[in-house]
Write a structure and sequence with these properties.
two-stranded antiparallel ribbon, mainly alpha, single chain, 6 helices, elongated, about 0% strand
Length: about 200
């Protein structure tokens, strides 16, 4: 999920007009990190021998899964908005919007699997300790591989920050390039906060 946030953030930075406030991405990042941390903490707690800790672990996992779903919905909403504002996204960054949207259904299947593990308590297919291997393989592992391949392909297709064009193609004229916004170093690449 954090990789999807990076694609969404770069698409936002590539707009010369009507981009989201940077605070929206900080809040989104916070939601995703807290969701991930709660899921991990819950997974650790359910392996305990104490019934109280197991109950706490289940609740933490459920809260984490819900936060990850909320983060996915926000990322999807941002990408849909970027799609409607595609002419304002830099030409080189437009594939990132398309790849972000293409990854959404696969991430949703992965999230449905996580939610099913958390909320389908008496299911033989979605049992936490002995899940159905086919459900796990197709709803978790294969989905992660597909999203990974999509993000790798997006990284290959999208030009580097320094090569991104300074014309958005909509006749709005020139605007500062991402290289100027982030600062460029020929050996280190992008340096956040400089420029």
């Amino acid at each position: 999920m954090p990789a999807k946030r990076v694609l969404t953030m770069r698409s936002n930075d590539g707009q010369n007009a009507s981009s989201f406030n940077e605070q929206a991405f900080r809040i989104l990042h916070l939601i995703l990190i807290i969701g991930l941390a709660l899921s991990i903490a819950g997974g650790v707690e359910i392996t305990s021998r104490s019934a109280n800790e197991i109950s706490t672990g289940d609740n933490l996992r459920k809260a984490g899964a819900i936060l990850l779903l909320i983060g996915w919905l926000v990322c999807l909403g941002m990408n849909v908005i970027f799609l409607f504002r595609i002419r304002h996204v830099w030409q080189g960054d437009r594939p990132l919007v398309y790849f972000g949207l293409a990854s959404a259904p696969f991430l949703l299947v992965r999230l449905i699997y996580l939610l099913a593990l958390c909320f389908a308590t008496n299911s033989k297919i979605f049992d936490t300790f002995s899940p159905n291997i086919w459900a796990q393989a197709f709803m978790q592992v294969v989905m992660e591989f597909i999203v990974f391949i999509l993000f790798c392909f997006a990284g290959v297709i999208a030009p580097g920050i320094k090569q991104t064009t300074e014309q958005d193609g909509s006749g709005n004229g020139q605007f500062p390039s991402q290289g100027q916004k982030y600062g460029q170093d020929s050996e280190l690449g992008v340096i956040s906060g400089r420029g």
